[in-house]
Structures are given as structure tokens and as C-alpha cells.
């Protein structure tokens, strides 16, 4: 899952980025309205966290343009306590939810899960592949029905693979799914995650395709 945070307050941004990365999301940060538009034009996001009072271009204008261009990701607006007008304008412009600053990071995480669940709920809420099952909303993985404890990056890696179980992913594609742009990614980072994931779910589950990348084992 890839998120975009649009926020000019560096302290708020740092705390949100940290919390979302610990929760296993890849998250990018745009510091002003123009940067946000550029990101939304060039990348596909699963959800957007949008501050409204932004330098260079107002958050409402960013949201209007995004929806006008067919952008469909859920948007949570982040607004000041007294700005009821802003909230209404934001919802009218196509936001899905809002949070009033200062907000609790656990509440933000819960709102994000709820919106992502609503969106994926129309498709398939739980992915299964052979002995494996992955529930994105509950953040749970089971192997033959027994729960497997994965750290967030292992979870994100398995989710990427299980969403498209016949596809071979290159390391670069997996890095994009697991990390936001600002984050350091070591040259063998994906190998390390694959190794630790294999230890937990069985080495045979994740197949190395020499010279290309990784996919799940074939089954059925
Ligand atoms: Ca602001």
C-alpha cells in the first residue's frame, strides 16, 4: 500500500511518516501544493492524507484538480480545529474523511485502515494462495490456518506477491511497493526481507526467478 502525505508542517509530517512506516505502509511526502500535484500526476497512490493550508497551492485546489483528473484514491483531509468551513469545502470537493489537528496517530491509522477496507471490501477482502491467507484489513497472515507473525515490511512484501500471485516482481518493483522516496534502500534490502519471510512461511513459498526477481510458488 502506498500513501501520499501532503503537509507543510515538518514536525507533523515527521511523526506521521514515522508512524505509517512502522505500520508497514510505503509513504511519500509532498511539502506544498505544487509538489502534491506533481506526485499525484506521476504516481498511483492507495490513499492521500491532505493538509489544506499549504504553500504554493491550496489543498482544496489540489483535491479539486485530482478528482477532476479522475483520481480515485480515498482522501483524508487534515484541518485546524476551528476551520469548519474548510472541512465542509473539503468534503464537498471529494474528500472521504477528515481529522482535526492535533490528531492521535492511532486514530489516523484506524481511519486509514477503515477507508482501505471499504475500498478493497468491494473486491476480495482476504487473499488466499495455497496454504497462505493474507487479510489486509486485519493485517493478519495465516499458514494452514495458523497465524504467522510478520514485521510490517515482510507483510507488505507478501501482500505485493499475493495480490498478483502469478506475476514475477523485479527487486525495483518490490522496493517501490515497500519504500517511500525519501527512504534509504540498501542494495540487498529486498533479499533480506525475502530471506526472513521464507524463514517464517517456508522457503518454498517464495520462488527466485534467476535474473528477474521473485514470485509466489505455483499452486492449484
Ligand atoms: Ca499547513
UniProtKB/TrEMBL annotation:
Modified residues annotated as 4-aspartylphosphate in this record: 51
Pfam families the UniProt entry points to: Response_reg (PF00072), Trans_reg_C (PF00486)
Residues covered by the OmpR/PhoB-type domain: 124-218
DNA-binding region, residues: 124-218
InterPro entries found in the cross-reference section: CheY-like_superfamily (IPR011006), OmpR/PhoB-type_DNA-bd (IPR001867), Sig_transdc_resp-reg_receiver (IPR001789), WalR-like (IPR039420), WH-like_DNA-bd_sf (IPR036388)
Range of residues in the leader sequence: none
Keyword annotations: Cytoplasm, DNA-binding, Phosphoprotein, Transcription, Transcription regulation, Two-component regulatory system
Name of protein: Response regulator
Protein species of origin: Paraburkholderia sejongensis
Amino acid at each position: 500500500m502506498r500513501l501520499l502525505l501532503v503537509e507543510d508542517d515538518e514536525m507533523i509530517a515527521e511523526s506521521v511518516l514515522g508512524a505509517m512506516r512502522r505500520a508497514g505502509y510505503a509513504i511519500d511526502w509532498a511539502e506544498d501544493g505544487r509538489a502534491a500535484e506533481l506526485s499525484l500526476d506521476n504516481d498511483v497512490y492507495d490513499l492521500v492524507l491532505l493538509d489544506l493550508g499549504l504553500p504554493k497551492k491550496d489543498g482544496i485546489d489540489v483535491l479539486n484538480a485530482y478528482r477532476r483528473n479522475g483520481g480515485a484514491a480515498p482522501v483524508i483531509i487534515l484541518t485546524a480545529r476551528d476551520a469548519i468551513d474548510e472541512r465542509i469545502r473539503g468534503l464537498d470537493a471529494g474528500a472521504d474523511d477528515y481529522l482535526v489537528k492535533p490528531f492521535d496517530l492511532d486514530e489516523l491509522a484506524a481511519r486509514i485502515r477503515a477507508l482501505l477496507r471499504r475500498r478493497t471490501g468491494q473486491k476480495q477482502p482476504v487473499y488466499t494462495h495455497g496454504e497462505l491467507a493474507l487479510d489486509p484489513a486485519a493485517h493478519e497472515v495465516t499458514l494452514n490456518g495458523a497465524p504467522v507473525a510478520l514485521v510490517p515490511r515482510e507483510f507488505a512484501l507478501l501482500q505485493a506477491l499475493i495480490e498478483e500471485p502469478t506475476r514475477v516482481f523485479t527487486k525495483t518493483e518490490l522496493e517501490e511497493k515497500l519504500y517511500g522516496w525519501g527512504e534509504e534502500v540498501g542494495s540487498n534490502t529486498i533479499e533480506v526481507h525475502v530471506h526472513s519471510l521464507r524463514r517464517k512461511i517456508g522457503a518454498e513459498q517464495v520462488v527466485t526467478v534467476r535474473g528477474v526477481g521473485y514470485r509466489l510458488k505455483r499452486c492449484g
